[in-house]
Specification:
Blueprint lengths: L2 H9 L4 H8 L3 H8 L7 H11 L3 H13 L1
Helix pairs in contact: 2-3, 4-5
Length: 69
């Protein structure tokens, strides 16, 4: 679901565990977000975007639009 999120994470050479630690959540919780199995809150989207120095829309908006089609 959040293909762009996974691509950004890999581009930054971060593991799912490292992302989870930065977000202060468990690795399984982060993986569920990345795989679209856990609903993403706006707060979490902002926190993730800050790690990549991007706006949340730049990471998640396109996926949201494609999901609605």
């Amino acid at each position: 679901m959040y293909l762009k999120l996974k691509e950004l994470r890999k581009k930054k050479k971060l593991t799912a565990r490292e992302m989870a630690e930065k977000l202060e959540i468990s690795k399984p919780f982060y993986c569920q977000i990345e795989n679209g199995k856990r609903r993403l809150t706006y707060d979490m989207a902002v926190r993730i975007a800050q790690i990549f120095k991007k706006k949340p829309d730049a990471i998640f908006y396109e996926d949201h639009i494609n999901r609605e089609k």
